[in-house]
Amino acid sequence: MNRTRLLTTMAVFVAIGTLGAQLLWFPAGVAKAYPVQHAVNVMAAVTLGPGPAVGIAFMIGLLRNMLGLGTLLAFPGGMVGAFLAGYLYKKTNKKALAAVGEAIGTGIIGSLFAVPFARILMGSSAGAFFFLPSFLVSSISGAFIGWFVVSKVKRANLLANHI
């Protein structure tokens, strides 16, 4: 994929993730659950790979924070989940493992990264188990949506040049 097409596809994923944050979210414990972010992470990981998926997750988190739609916790969870989803898909070529990577990367590893992140940047002294349930709810629901979409798009052969 040439650089122009890659950047354009990344911009479309960022737009979907940012717009989706306004339309589809629900409260989940201490954080807001944005399943569209996790769905985009899985779709980007499968179509573009781990590097671009991490960049997309960072940009969505940055835009959500600038627009007042998210918290700083969008960064540790979203970026780790996107990387693990892309890495697992790249190694196994299985879309289901990309979704599992997103759920584990964001839901478990991201929630552990959120503890010092919240302590340093947000002044919160909450422990890891405080973030784990809300991160898991959001990441599992979004990863399932992303896996479903990628599976249907691949089957319909709509992205034959990308996947």
From TrEMBL:
Entry's transmembrane regions: 6-26, 38-60, 66-89, 96-122, 128-150
Residues in coiled coil: none
Pfam families in UniProt: ThiW
Key words of the record: Membrane, Transmembrane, Transmembrane helix
Origin superkingdom: Bacteria
Protein name (record): Energy coupling factor transporter S component ThiW
